[in-house]
Design a protein that fits this description.
Structural class: alpha/beta
EC number: 1.14.14.21
Number of strands: 10
Oligomer: single chain
Helix content: 40-55%
CATH class of the largest domain: Mainly Alpha
Number of domains: 3
Strand content: 5-15%
Keywords: Flavoprotein, FMN, Monooxygenase, Nucleotide-binding, Oxidoreductase
Shape: globular
Number of helices: 12
GO molecular function: oxidoreductase activity
Order of helices and strands: HHHHHHEEEEEEEEEHHHHHHE
Catalytic activity: dibenzothiophene + 2 FMNH2 + 2 O2 = dibenzothiophene 5,5-dioxide + 2 FMN + 2 H2O + 2 H(+); dibenzothiophene + FMNH2 + O2 = dibenzothiophene 5-oxide + FMN + H2O + H(+); dibenzothiophene 5-oxide + FMNH2 + O2 = dibenzothiophene 5,5-dioxide + FMN + H2O + H(+)
Radius of gyration: 22 Å
CATH superfamily of the largest domain: Butyryl-CoA Dehydrogenase, subunit A, domain 3
CATH architecture of the largest domain: Up-down Bundle
CATH topology of the largest domain: Butyryl-CoA Dehydrogenase, subunit A, domain 3
Family: Belongs to the DszC flavin monooxygenase family.
Length: 423
């Protein structure tokens, strides 16, 4: 299994789930270059993933899913990252939707909700999980262009109560699978609230009246993710398609193991898979191509020896950070506190993505002028891995937050609401 290059001690059940992932990789790999060139998500991949049962990878079996966990998701996004990082990234964001089902149920079990709130919270959470298990693609829309100093993600989209439901207005600047997913799982702030207690979650159908797609995203990073974002103009969402219980959002976040919803390291696995692939291709090219005068492999030159030595070091750095993070987030019983796991991730995310980018940069140098093509493996990986330098937060912000945690005993909040005057 390709995923075993990252998760080296898979159980028998994990291997069975990983086989499903391996079965689709040839199709992803064959479509990757065209998808990148055109900047479009291959819509056939939705059926491919659905037919393989992979849209329910991390959904418990009792809800109809495959019963996988974070180890499965990391192995899957890593393996897909070796074939088509864009698809791997979009798939990652679909799977983050599961947190909106799993964490509320854990919060119920922990006694965090009142008796009258439990039926509403449970119904929404189970709807998230059963839809995923049934093969529904969910695009997880939280990020917006509005920024505040207090948090990484600021929610300015509003939800106003009307008879039978809610009216949503706002704009989401980042969310893979725009125009592809069946539903946009969308965060918005309830009227009358100005803290994270007012953040609610809504199922927004792709074709709902008032939903439109933003201008095409001509991004530097993974170009085939359908990452245009959406605009919501007076979009009506029925009550039973919303989790609008005040305080539900921060309560569910308290149940995550480390990073805010407990699955963020799987995005770093995408980048690591991409880095491994470009490393493998660069090494294959350098060892098979020979010098015309000596017949020796190009890889034997001192310059290439230095480049591959550094690329190997950077790649192993990414693996070490990622594997340790995976251990601290999945070990039973836990051996680190939630804050320690959080702190580890704030350092680890930047360390992994910076290291992976350096691997692509080394591959570009090793390939020389003839390999410096937009369609070549090095050129595409360099662009793909550039996204990791900024997505969610750059390495510098992670280090700053860790410094504040260490010196001020103050953890950074991930989500905040925008001031009322923003709009």
């Amino acid at each position: 299994m390709i995923g075993e290059r990252l998760v080296e001690d898979m159980t028998a059940d994990e291997r069975d789930r990983a086989r499903r992932v391996d079965s689709i990789l040839p199709v992803l790999r064959a479509a990757a270059d065209h998808a990148d060139t055109t900047g479009t998500f291959p819509t056939g991949h939705v059926d491919l993933l659905r037919d393989a049962g992979l849209l329910g990878l991390v959904v418990p079996e009792k809800f109809g899913g495959l019963g996988g966990g974070l180890r499965d998701l990391a192995a899957a996004t890593y393996a897909m990252g070796t074939a088509c990082p864009s698809t791997a990234l979009a798939y990652f964001f679909h799977n983050t939707s599961a947190s909106r089902g799993l964490l509320p149920l854990e919060a119920i079990d922990a006694g965090l909700f009142d008796a009258d709130e439990i039926p509403v919270v449970r119904a929404f959470a189970e709807k998230v999980l059963t839809r995923m298990a049934d093969g529904v693609w969910l695009a997880n829309f939280a990020s917006e262009s509005v920024k505040t100093e207090a948090a990484n993600i600021t929610i300015a989209t509003t939800a106003s109560k009307v008879d039978g439901g809610w009216i949503l207005n706002g704009e989401k600047s980042f969310g893979c699978a725009t125009g592809v997913a069946d539903f946009y799982l969308t965060s918005a702030v309830l009227d009358g609230h100005d803290t994270a207690d007012g953040i609610a979650t809504f199922f927004v159908p792709r074709e709902a009246p008032g939903v439109s797609v933003r201008a095409p995203w001509n991004g530097l990073g993974m170009r085939a993710t359908a990452n245009n974002g959406i605009r919501l103009t007076d979009v009506f969402i029925a009550d039973d398609e919303a989790l609008a219980v005040p305080g539900a959002f921060p309560k569910m976040l308290t149940r995550s193991r480390g990073s805010f919803v407990g699955n963020q390291l799987a995005i770093a696995a995408v980048y690591t898979g991409c880095a491994q692939n470009v490393y493998d291709e660069a090494l294959a090219a350098a060892t098979s191509k020979t010098f015309a005068d000596t017949g020796n492999p190009v890889a034997s030159s001192p310059v290439h020896q230095v480049l591959f030595g550094e690329m190997t070091r950077q790649l192993q750095t990414a693996y070490l950070w990622l594997r340790y993070q995976l251990t601290v987030e999945t070990a039973e019983p836990p051996f680190k506190s939630k804050q320690d796991v959080f702190t580890q991730w704030r350092l680890g995310k930047g360390s992994v993505t910076e290291a992976c980018f350096q691997v692509a940069l080394g591959a570009l140098k090793a390939g020389g002028t003839s390999a410096a093509s937009m369609q070549g493996s090095a050129g595409r990986a360099l662009r793909d891995l550039a996204m990791g330098l900024v997505m969610t937060f750059p390495a510098e912000r992670g280090m700053l937050e860790v410094a504040k945690i260490a010196t001020e005993a103050k953890a950074n909040e991930l989500f905040a609401t925008a001031p009322a005057e923003v709009g």
